[in-house]
Specification:
The complex is a heterodimer. Chain A is mainly α. Chain A folds into 2 domains: 44 residues; 233 residues, MetI-like fold (Orthogonal Bundle), CATH 1.10.3720.10. Chain A is 75% helix and 0% strand. Chain A is built from 11 helices and no strands. Chain B is α/β, with parallel strands linked by helices. Chain B has a domain of 177 residues: 3-Layer(aba) Sandwich (Rossmann fold). In chain B, 40% of the residues lie in helices and 25% in strands. Chain B has a 6-stranded mixed beta sheet with strand order 6-7-8-3-9-10, with helices on both faces. In chain B, strands 2-1-4-5 form a 4-stranded antiparallel beta sheet, covered by helices on one side. The longest helix of chain B has 16 residues. Chain B starts with a helix and ends in a 5-residue tail after the last helix. Classes of the chains: A mainly alpha, B alpha/beta. Chain A: InterPro entries: MetI-like, MetI-like_sf, Phosphate_PstA. Chain A: Keywords: Cell membrane, Membrane, Transmembrane, Transmembrane helix, Transport. Chain A: It is found in: Cell membrane.
């Protein structure tokens, strides 16, 4: 039988094939390394600067004109207050929207239009959301520079991300599970509540908590709202004004005294710890839900 | 020989009693997926406590038809129907007929085993629970009865609280049958229930179908003609969205009226 493949050629081609494979492997490894190195340098700089400044007093003090007395208490507590508004508002509205779009809404031009716009909103610069919040919540609804106004603005900011993440998680639930449920006479809500959501919750939570982390680190919209950076008291309710960690850090980095750079570094460490803590909650919840099955 | 006589007499009885023993009566059913005319003028009566097999080549509309019987087909966007299907005398397309009510009477077993990612117990208890049964004692009883009914109780009774995904494919399919029995249906629709299973699991499911027909009316779609011949009482042959022939299984496989049926069952196409 005549052979169409020349084995000699295959052998000759082999080494260049393998070489290309190894070169690309190296390139991809370098790409990964680049990100890692930048991260390590950043962390090293911040931690060396923060050493000596990061202590209980730093967590317990209000901001001060003297760097050695400055603390992040107002920012830390303010950021937690912000989450008390942002987490429930954005989760309830975001997951609700995702459920409606994925499970109830008919696929037509109108829902396509909504879908496209939600995806686009996720890419809108945060400062634009700040202006929206300033117009609607601070001025129109007269909420002032309160936790409520800032929380609602931040909720708008992270909503598109949560909606898209939740939609993807809901879409990933195999249709055959829904069919099995409907086939036994379950209503749509029963199917969603008992089958779709339990299967989708790990994905929804992962996406949502990452979105909330973004809200905790975000500064621009709050600058537009006019949230103060120097506050020597704690808010007592959601209608009080407040400040958050990134605003506080931004304020410190713009001070002329060199010592404030150390204070800022200490603030960044606290912010990072809060973010890592939130992400570990996400991982914990995800693992817990997965273990049930 | 004697068996055939008995069967014929039984069929005659069925005809004489007329409406009473008909579970499903399909009259002039047409169905379109958008522009595609998938079912054409289907007329079919399905009888109580019998196994009705639906055979035909891929794309002939057999799965579409069985999914119309519990209106699962409506999950597909762009489906239109005309004509009527009555279940125990009521038109299932009636506005007043709630689809959840219909599906409480008509259980379904799917092509691929599709247990929920829950424990074996919770899988079987799912149906009763969504219908509002919360009493633990009753649920326990239903679970045991259903699992026994699906001939899987002995294999799983010691691990009811373990995940259903740990079962083999054949066990999963029998669990799905148990889950379906748990809502105490009147009819069981089976859409190629053994196509994803190995021969031994297939045999077990087939034996189970024989057992179940004492208490349930079963409609089974299969692409396996031997299976249809083995387990069904009546067989309908679908081709290109039409019912070519519908009669007693023995007759359809030994002496079909239509040339196309003969060509199909002798393996000349499809």
């Amino acid at each position: 039988m005549e052979k169409l493949i020349d084995k000699q050629r295959v052998v000759r081609y082999m080494s260049s094939r393998l070489l290309r494979n190894n070169v690309l492997k190296l390139l991809f490894f370098l790409a990964t390394l680049f990100g890692l190195i930048v991260l390590v340098v950043l962390l090293y700089r911040i931690f060396t600067q923060a050493i000596g400044w990061l202590n209980i007093d730093f967590l317990n003090n209000f901001p001060s004109r003297r760097p050695e007395n400055a603390g992040i208490k107002a920012g830390l507590v303010g950021s937690l207050w912000l989450m008390i508004i942002v987490a429930p508002v954005s989760l309830i509205i975001g997951v609700g929207t995702a459920i409606y779009l994925e499970e109830y809404a008919k696929k037509n031009r109108f829902t396509d239009f909504i879908q496209t716009n939600i995806s686009n909103l996720a890419g809108v610069p945060s400062i634009v959301f700040g202006l929206l919040g300033l117009t609607i919540f601070v001025r129109e609804l007269n909420l002032g520079r309160s936790i409520l106004a800032a929380g609602l603005t931040m909720s708008l900011l992270v909503l598109p991300v949560i909606v898209v993440a939740a939609q993807e998680a809901i879409r990933a639930v195999p249709n055959q599970l829904r069919e099995a449920s409907y086939g036994m006479g379950a209503t749509k809500w029963q199917t969603i509540y008992r089958i779709v959501l339990p299967a989708a919750i790990p994905g929804i939570l992962t996406g949502s908590i990452l979105a909330l982390s973004r809200a905790i680190g975000e500064t621009a919209p709050l600058v537009v709202l006019g949230i103060p950076t120097f506050l020597a008291y704690l808010p007592r309710g959601i209608l009080d004004t407040f400040t958050v960690m990134p605003m506080q850090i931004y304020n410190w980095t713009s001070r002329p005294q060199a010592d404030f750079q150390h204070v800022a570094a200490a603030g960044i460490v606290v912010l990072l710890v809060v973010l890592i803590f939130m992400n570990s909650i996400a991982i914990f919840i995800r693992n817990k839900f997965q273990k049930r099955y | 020989m004697e068996l055939t006589v008995v069967k014929e007499r039984k069929n005659k009885q069925t005809e004489e009693q007329g409406e009473k023993n008909v579970v499903y009566r399909t009259k002039n059913l047409n169905l379109w997926y958008g522009e595609h005319h998938a079912l054409k003028n289907i007329d079919l009566d399905i009888y109580e406590n019998e196994v009705t097999a639906i055979i035909g080549p891929s794309g002939c509309g057999k799965s579409t038809y069985i999914k119309t019987l519990n209106r699962m087909i409506e999950l597909v966007p762009g489906v239109r129907t005309s004509g009527e299907i009555t279940y125990r005398g009521r038109n299932i397309f009636d506005k007043s007929y709630r689809v959840e009510e219909l599906r409480t009477q008509v259980g379904m077993v799917f092509q691929k085993p599709n247990p929920f990612p829950k424990s074996i117990y919770d899988n079987v208890a799912y149906g009763p629970r969504i219908h509002g049964i919360r009493d633990k004692k009753i649920l326990d009883e239903i679970v045991e009865k259903s699992l026994r009914g699906a001939a899987i109780w002995d294999e799983v009774k010691d691990r009811l609280n373990t995940n259903a995904y740990g079962l083999s494919g054949g066990q999963q399919q029998r669990l799905c049958i148990a889950r379906c029995l748990a809502i105490e249906p009147d009819v069981i629709l089976m859409d190629e229930p053994t196509s994803a299973l190995d021969p031994i699991s297939t045999l077990k499911v087939e034996e189970l179908v024989q057992e179940l027909k004492k208490n349930y009316s079963i409609i089974i779609v299969t692409h396996n003609m031997q299976q249809a011949a083995r387990i069904s009482d009546k067989t309908a042959f679908f081709l290109n969205g039409e019912v070519i022939e519908y009669s007693d299984t023995d007759k359809l496989f030994s002496n079909p009226d239509d040339k196309r049926t003969e060509d199909y069952i002798t393996g000349r196409f499809g």
